[in-house]
């Protein structure tokens, strides 16, 4: 359930003076000829570009397989918002997911950071990884109708027959991906190839080195880029870090423990109101939540939307709200609707936002891409006993997210049915050049738990900035201590030590 950063408010408004030259390291070997970018108006991607009048957009063809450079190609969507003043270089941004659009993120940032030192000194650059966002071909495994049907499935029955049904749905999804996209394309969706694509974009821009800001899964891209192209990194901030040594099962358990921590924080905040649907007794918060959502397994709740609120949507909406306290009020509203027998539609809206469904019923492809990327990034266990043991552990660390009693059975992950083998496996990050990387980790981050950032900083031998809060990622979300430190680092090359904000 790891996913992208939710873009916050503006950066610090004070402008810092540029001091000295950017950090620089010589390239050890000659590079291939740089591909060409044909810049044009961002009307290429957007109907309205008034908020980013200086932005330029393009599509950059790259090989589907870098082992066959003369073979079929995919086109990466690229956006650049030029620096407004004395330019330092290019600041690449990736919001995570996997599956989120970096083009959309940079378009938002370009508008939000006008007048900031980041806008003054850097070209903001985003490219949508292959298959994602505005890149072509767009990875699609499901039609809109098929996705709606997927969301109606509770996937909560862990009896042998229930597990068999869930795994059949997973197998069907994997088969659809293979049939509609082809295994050649699916085999290149991993982060290994995204890092190669990022270096191709760097060369197309004519940049010897780049500055990089990665959120959530974007930290995985950054770590992979450092491993293969570290000499081309001027400065890098990794916020909401992923520990590259952790296997998929352990990652899931750790993440669920993080969401339980966020649920507890939400419930404690909710309990300050006498109308809290979970009540005021901490010992009963999980039980009250389960009492509200469990009946949806058998029968969805009525909403103004004719789809109603399914069990899967109620749980997805809950997870979405736990990413940030800004959404807690909508979780409360939806749970109150369930408690009072009124419309719990805010939970459906939260689920729609997470799944990428618009008001017309059309889905973005971020969830299909999410699975396609993660299935290539690590082998998934195929032994059912591994997943049964994981289910037992998840019920211990995240009881709010656990339906029914432990059965000794659990479905294997979608990736256990994937039609192509993974192209990467868990391994430690390589130590980075001193001063080239800073890691940021939030103590109450539900999706990328704090310890993952601690571990990544240790592997990279990089400083760690700790933010004390409950949210997923924090850089440029209006926290002065964090934002000022990142600006000093990016603009002036001031490398922080380990610190807490």
UniProtKB/TrEMBL annotation:
Does the record carry Calcium as a key word? Answer: no
Broad EC category: hydrolase
**Could you give a GO molecular-function term held by this entry?**
peptidase activity
Q: Where is the AB hydrolase-1 domain?
A: 90-476
Signal sequence span per UniProt?
Answer: 1-28
Q: Which InterPro entries match?
A: AB_hydrolase_1, AB_hydrolase_fold, Serine_prot/Carboxylest_S33
A Gene Ontology BP annotation from the UniProt entry: proteolysis
* EC number(s) per entry: 3.4.-.-, 3.4.14.-
Print the keywords alphabetically.
Answer: Hydrolase, Protease, Signal
Q: SUPFAM superfamilies of this UniProt entry?
A: alpha/beta-Hydrolases
**Family classification:** Belongs to the peptidase S33 family.
Protein name per Swiss-Prot or TrEMBL: Protease
Native source organism of the sequence: Mycolicibacterium chitae (Mycobacterium chitae)
